[in-house]
Amino acid sequence: MLGKAIRAALLGTALGITAVPAVTLAAQTGSVSQQYNIPAGSLDEVLNQFARKAGITLSSTPQMTQGLQSPGLQGSYATDQALRQLLNGSGLEAVSQDGGSYVLRAQPQDAALSLPSTEVREFALGNALGSMEGYNATHSQVATKTSAPILETSQSVSVVTRQQMDDQGSQTVAQTMRYTPGVLTNPYGATHRYDYVAMRGFNDGSVDNIYLDGLKSMGDSGTYSTMQVDPYFLERVDILKGPSSVLYGRSSPGGLVALTSKKPLYEAYHQVQASVGTQGQRGVGFDFSGPLDDDKRIAYRLVGLADQSDTQFDHNKEKRFALAPTLSINFSEDTSLTLQAYLQNDPDGGYHAGVPADGALHQRNGQRISDHFFEGEPGIDRYERDQQSFGYQFEHRFNDVFTARQNFRYLDSTVKMDQVYAWGWTTPTSNELNRYYTGGDEKLHAYIIDNMLQAEYFTGSAKHTTLLGLDYQRRKTVVDWRSGALAPINAFDPQYGNSEITYFDPTSYLRRLQQTGVYLQDLIELDQWRFSLGLRQDWVKTSDENRIAEASRPVGTKISDERTKLTGRAGVLYLFENGIAPYISYSESFNPNSYADQSGNPLAPTDGTQWEAGIKYQPPGTDNLFTASVFRIEQENLASKLPQEEFYRPVGQVRSQGLELEAHMQVTDNLKVLGSYTFTDIEYAKSMPSTLFASDLDNKGNSPTQAPRHMASLWADYNFRQGALDGLRLGGGVRYVGSSWVDAENTMKVPSYTLFDASLGYDLGKVGLKGVDVRLNANNLTNQSYIASCASLSYCYMGEERNVSATVSYQF
């Protein structure tokens, strides 16, 4: 009954307020003087520092303050007086609103020329979700679902900006995070079909930790139906390390990746681009945005892309067509609505398979498997994905205390797949690989809705930002799977054309998932202290219904599982005046297993807990950020499956602990630098060996596969802004991935590897072609041949070879 009542309330159009607690409003006045010592710097950073110290909300947009500098502020000033001093000569002014908030706008020449406040009212989310210059984001909402300074967040958060994606030539979402600590972005090598991301040593072979615009992507990790978004459609990527179920429900203990799509702009923006590259890569894209009315209350954005490539693997292609229309409406200063759609068709999904360690990591019979080797059949291999999503983001501010938000998305996806893959050598000395066939026709329908009520108020001298949320998600997947076997293939001299398949019995399932969650979070600011408290209750139901008779399961047999779970989070941080912020936090996660064991029984959910401590440092007067964090994660009941098996097995308890270092630096106006280091010590702390297989051993104390112990990266970008080289941009980076284990028994290691990347760009506006920009990107510049990782002795994954792309863009 409780679940039904919650869902009935949840599916309403907007949150209603039936009772308002007694609170004390933040009554900042513009006449009370405070002492300030804020050094000179960029105007947006100086204003951010001032707003924090003054205890006010200052609304703005990145475009307003772009390129502006401020001399800082020293001395005793009232709030209004200080703002006038800070904005003197900038052409901007701060207009006081109710409740200690201010809106930044252009100084009007007369009343008719003043900017409508609707252009800047979304600052609370804009500085956590919107566009920005450079690599340094100061705010994020991924950890709290509110706009919070990263410096003041008691958990490890990293942000990849749009400019970083462009400078580094990121071709997939996973590639955007190549320079982020704690993240292994290529556990399955050079495949681009899914955005696999292993975080803090945890990789369950799914993409369950990807979120889009605050909502789970809702793909089905137990099938081939997984939503993927092209990075061209994104404004930024936020990465939260560690468990996060208190706000998001079911999730991985390693962390989550939050994608933010491009939103409409209230100034005209038009951009087209074309790219060509190695492996036959070629593509075109466009990005148009601007207001639709004279009052600039309605704006649109239309982004499109067509791209294709031959890939590095023989007989494999990738092809994509995508379109994203978006419309934003500001009904008033207090109410806004953004309508979104994302349409993507992938006629060719590229390569996705692995080869044995014997032959990939070292020679077999004096030969090594080629980086281009394709073990399938050209006439059979295909992966077609068609996905459409529709959603909205609604926000209404009732008063200076309460704001309601509702996010919704519906996803429809179809996948058609045929693949021939290898598994093991036919004999101990043979050059031929056994080959099997798998095929699938899948249809996925899912929707998710998240309602939030946010209250900002004071109790005494403590400022609270309290968030009450209610979310619901539902997913249905119909899967028809085929399997079979066919003739072996010579791994060193492949001959294709023998495509006769011996089919096994087909299978068909109807898979369902429902999740309802209620969560409460309180963020407290008390002097220099920052406290974070959160609690969530989830009700999750999964089922797997057999649609075709099997030997042990008649038609209609349903495996179902219902779980309730309470998760929490707590954190404390102290913000020193010099920009140093030490913190400690505790967080939990859970993820119900939609997998069954060999007897058809659902596995118990995986539970994760984390302790994390760290220090963040943001030098006053800059938006540079340095972070050092140590963590310990324990996860129970992790599910594992060998590639040739049809069922999963629990592997007991996994413990991961380590150290992460990260630096985001705008060293000068010309030079940007990113640096990171990761140490991860992960092992099976308590194993549950199966008795079905003689080869199964107690792996306690061993490390899981695809979990390198050390990783490090460094990226620098220099922009010449004067002299003969004015307009030239140079970038370069190095990525190191340490060794990892090939198998859970830890009998063989994948060697470490080091990769170099480079970029070269030039603004042709400097030579008279206004709006035209060219960029050249090279990944794995030295064409290092390497194995990215191995999941077992039978499955190792080829690393991505050198790829070079040239992009020409025109903005008008």
UniProtKB/TrEMBL annotation:
Pfam families: Plug (PF07715), STN (PF07660), TonB_dep_Rec_b-barrel (PF00593)
Protein name in UniProt: TonB-dependent siderophore receptor
Keyword entries, A-Z: Cell outer membrane, Ion transport, Iron, Iron transport, Membrane, Receptor, Signal, TonB box, Transmembrane, Transmembrane beta strand, Transport
Membrane topology label: Multi-pass membrane protein
Domain Secretin/TonB short N-terminal: 56-107
Lineage: Bacteria, Pseudomonadati, Pseudomonadota, Gammaproteobacteria, Pseudomonadales
Source organism (scientific name): Pseudomonas rubra
PANTHER family: FERRICHROME IRON RECEPTOR-RELATED (PTHR32552), FERRICHROME OUTER MEMBRANE TRANSPORTER_PHAGE RECEPTOR (PTHR32552:SF68)
Organism domain of life: Bacteria
Tagged with keyword Transferase: no
